[in-house]
Amino acid sequence: MTARLVDRRPAVPPDRLLAEMVPPRHFVGESFDTYRPDPAYASQAAALDRLRTLADQVRAGGSGGGRSWFRRSQPEPVAVYLDGGFGVGKTHLLTSLAHAVGVDVTAYGTFVEYTNLVGALGFAATVETLARRRLVCIDEFELDDPGDTVLMSRLLRELADRGVALAATSNTLPESLGEGRFAAEDFLREIQALAARFEVLRIDGQDYRQRRTVTQAPEVAPEVVARVTAARADATCDDFADLLAHLAQVHPSRYGALLDGVGLVGLTGVAPVERQDVALRLVVLVDRLYDRDVPVVLAGRGTSELFSAEMLRGGYRKKYYRALSRLGALAGDGAALVAGPGPTP
């Protein structure tokens, strides 16, 4: 019988959380040299050059723990913020920075992984742990609630004061974090404090995965999904609605562990997601699938109407577009597995 993700209830101890603060597997071989700036968008080459310089500064400045690579008399900022649309290579550049500085002296994680680390270790212990790194990288920096705004602002302030270099990616300018999601004016001071800490590097361009706004993921028949996943010991097969219900019972920080040992994910009954809280959990799962290069095969209505027009116009629209782009790429990999190897030349 094919395994199901809904039968998994992973537990993630604190030591694993720390061990996994490294660049995702999808980008393990990437570096500044493998990033190919689009000549049509000068901001891509400019960001690449700036990050190369930043990597040299961080390496030359020593570790955290009070030895700062930045002095107030210098014009260089203590942090850099990569802003741009989905698929323009922000995560590629962020992981390249981590590799250039050294993964052994860098903490790398998504926003939700850092907030969960604070929950597991406590704030003071998290600061002490991260302050021993030269660089802290935060991918997908998108604030979803006021509490996270205050928490991350305080964490970054503590780390910067201890000389830790900071780098982040997001689809939203730092002064616009929270826009359209909660009453941002009530937390304007915290948001402005965050924005003031970053040098913003705007990266323009088109989605390198598909070069179009919404990715249409390939669909297959339910019986094909069942057959393909049954043929692989590392595959899972779930009903889409059942999986969405299960995700509500698992903390998003554990979605990576949910995929331990999984090499292919099959989903049947794929249909539009009607509630935003459910849609946001799905976005996190897609990100973890993408980080781990796990192909998916989809049966149902695919991704054409996965998120409503209202969702795609709202405050989380860039998250949804990123998820569509990434899910389409993974579904393309899954469709290639369904098709099997081509004829031998």
From TrEMBL:
One of its GO terms (molecular function) is ATP binding. GO terms for biological process: cell division. It comes from the Bacteria. The keyword Coiled coil does not apply. Pfam families: AFG1_ATPase. Keywords: ATP-binding, Cell cycle, Cell division, Nucleotide-binding. PANTHER family: AFG1-LIKE ATPASE, ATPASE N2B. NCBIfam families: ZapE. This is Cell division protein ZapE. It comes from Cellulomonas marina.
